[in-house]
Amino acid sequence: ELPDIDSEYSDSGDEGHDEKVKALPHWAQSPALAAALYRQQHVNPDDIFGPIPPLSMQEIFKTNTARFSKRTSSACWEGTDALTADDLARYNQAMGY
């Protein structure tokens, strides 16, 4: 069985653990699947899929691009709000990559 991963979104008790396990399909309770997931828990997804390309709102919402030209600074994720190489390095270290 894989260890539980603490999250800011999870509650601290195990009161729902048994119900969650029972709700899993049979194939998801396989020891082989658990072992495979355990082996890959520290594999960086970027090594498999490549880095995530920059998000282009104009490409996603092609029908109404006029409203994106009047963005305020709170909707601008470039420049000082973008992730730095140091941010990414700290994240990779925290994830065990």
TrEMBL record:
Region annotation Disordered: where it falls in the sequence: 1-20
Annotated Inner centromere protein ARK-binding domain residues: 9-61
Biased composition (Acidic residues): 1-13
Subcellular localization(s) per the UniProt record: Cytoplasm, Cytoskeleton, Spindle; Nucleus
GO biological-process terms attached to the record: chromosome segregation
Alphabetic keyword roster: Chromosome partition, Cytoplasm, Cytoskeleton, Nucleus
Pfam families: INCENP_ARK-bind (PF03941)
Subcellular location, principal: cytoplasm
Gene3D superfamilies (UniProt xref): 6.10.250.2990
GO CC entries: nucleus; spindle
UniProt keyword annotation of Repressor present: no
Similarity comment: family membership: Belongs to the INCENP family.
Name of the featured protein: Inner centromere protein
Organism: Leucosporidium creatinivorum
